Amino acid sequence: MTIDTLDIAASPMPATVPKRSFLQEVIEDTPGSDPRFEMCIQCGTCGGSCPSGPDMEYSPRRIFAMIKADMREEVLKSNTFWYCVSCYYCMARCPQQVHITDLMYTLKRKAVREGYCRKSTASDAPDFSEFFADAVLKYGRSFELGLATRYHLRHHPLGAIKMATGMGLEMMRKGRMDLTPRRIKNVDQLQAILSKAEEIARQEREQGGVA
Amino acid sequence: MKYNYYPGCSLERNASAYHDSTMAVAKPLGIEFQEVNDCNCCGAVEFMAIDKMQAYALIARNLSLAEQQMSNGENLVAPCSACFLNLSKCDAYLSASPALADKVNKALAAGGMHYTPGQVHTRHLLDVAVNDVGYDAIAKKVSKPLYGLRVAPYYGCLIVRPGFLDKFDDPEYPTSLDKLMRTLGATVVDFPMKAHCCGGHMTQISEPVALYMIHQLLKNAADYEADVITTICPMCQLNLDAYQHNVNKAYGTHYNIPILYFTQLMGLAFGLSAKKLGFGKEFISAAPALIKIGVKPPKKPKKKRPSKQELPMPVMPEEE
Ligand code: SF4
Ligand code: SF4
């Protein structure tokens, strides 16, 4: 669509309604009460406390600045949140009680939903989460061997062989890994709950416009 | 004392030593555990990255199941730090946000379930041991003190941070596990990195990053000449134990530090047999540490050649 063909009068969003900022968007997509994202004072405590900080393209502090600057694509393409190990050091230390770890999860979900995760340098990571979730959706339980095999076969075939002959085999010898998944009794009930949850989330996105 | 018990996926298999030793020390501690019937996975650190509503519904189903077992009291005990964090965080967020609770309950209703936020009180096993049972009562049960055993107490992250329901210990420099180990007669070494992260699932995402984190922890414990590292979380145990060999290869080190659950050490001090406490399942053998305190290590199972059936051929979830 070019500027010429853009019919401003017919546009569903009147020019007077300001576009929702990226900051607003991530706040709305984060569960719990107020995540306090707008309260960041750029002190840098989070980045300095983060065990993955050196491996992140942008420190958590920078991510907050970039969100405020509406740098949506740059943020969602980055590896920062995929390198977050959920240690909560940042959250425990933040002088403004910003829910930093929750932001990392929100960015992960957005990047998965919008396909940005494929462009990030940590592009294997989303599959790990997705394969994990797949097993839980199916059995109600996680399934380490299935997850490890499926994930490694896709991303590190050599690792899969090492896994199957080295650590994996040792895990099995020691009785620390199941060959077949364990299923909860009431899988049907769980699946009904989870598909309803998905439907609610979808409706929420459609109504509230949270992408 | 009666408690509902949420084992989580790890304790059923990978961390069965944690489960077995927890069950073994329950009796001397005067604890009666009732497992949450048909509980599902808590989602670990993965599900929240995919779908928040599903992630919360998944956790809330467990809370709802525990709510149905209130005859065992309101306490729900999780020995895994990630399960503990997820259950307590979900409950705290549902309590703080009626709108979220409403949506999650709509999802639960599709399975004929409901959860009232705040009804179930999620606790970590360590919290229950030191605060409900108490150091004095534990001291009374010690029949074989762990004299001479140098223990590095490892807390990791999620049990002390950020403390969604109770802050039962310091988020930066916790001491409850130190005190518990001293109660058992062990020598507690200084362990400045005791609340640092084990890397969680990073071993799968980027092994070099993970090995760096694990190396730091092992080095710290070795610097203070720890005989063993004691842990309260299956993920921490797995990372420090199963990847110790890889750390040695990557860093040219020779660490050989067994990573033992705090319940295993408690059981030894109570005079329970090593076999009953799940010893022998660790990658880095605990035998030298056991011998040091005069405990007979469990017999090694005879190594037989792995048959075809034993090779890891998983049943795979079909690709969509
Ligand atoms: S610690 Fe908190 S206030 Fe400081 S930069 Fe990080 S998010 Fe902002
Ligand atoms: S929770 Fe994530 S972002 Fe925060 S310090 Fe830990 S790894 Fe870094």
Notes on the protein architecture:
The complex is a heterodimer of chains A (211) and B (320). By secondary structure, chain A is mainly alpha-helical. Chain A folds into two domains: 19-122, Orthogonal Bundle (Fumarate Reductase Iron-sulfur Protein, Chain B, domain 2), CATH 1.10.1060.10; 124-211, no CATH class. Chain A has helices spanning 22-28, 45-49, 60-68, 72-77, 89-93, 100-113, 125-139, 144-155, 157-165, 167-173, 187-208. In chain A, helix 8 packs antiparallel against helix 9 (157-165). Chain A is globular, with a radius of gyration of 21 Å. Chain A starts with 21 loop residues before the first helix and ends with a helix. Chain B is of the alpha/beta class and 320 residues long. Chain B folds into two domains: 2-124, Glutathione S-transferase Yfyf (Class Pi), Chain A, domain 2 (Up-down Bundle), CATH 1.20.1050.140; 142-292, Rossmann fold (3-Layer(aba) Sandwich). In chain B, 44% of the residues lie in helices and 9% in strands. Chain B is built from 13 helices and eight strands. In chain B, the strands form two sheets. A four-stranded parallel beta sheet of chain B has the order 2-1-3-4, with helices on both faces. Chain B has a four-stranded parallel beta sheet with strand order 6-5-7-8, with helices on both faces. In chain B, helix 2 packs across helix 12 and helix 3 crosses helix 4 (81-96). The longest helix of chain B has 17 residues, at 125-141. The radius of gyration of chain B is 20 Å and the shape is globular. The N and C termini of chain B lie far apart (47 Å). The model of chain B is unreliable at 316-320 (pLDDT under 50). The structure holds iron/sulfur cluster (2 copies). One iron/sulfur cluster (SF4) is lined by residues 40-46, 60-61, 64, 94-96, 98, 100 of chain A.
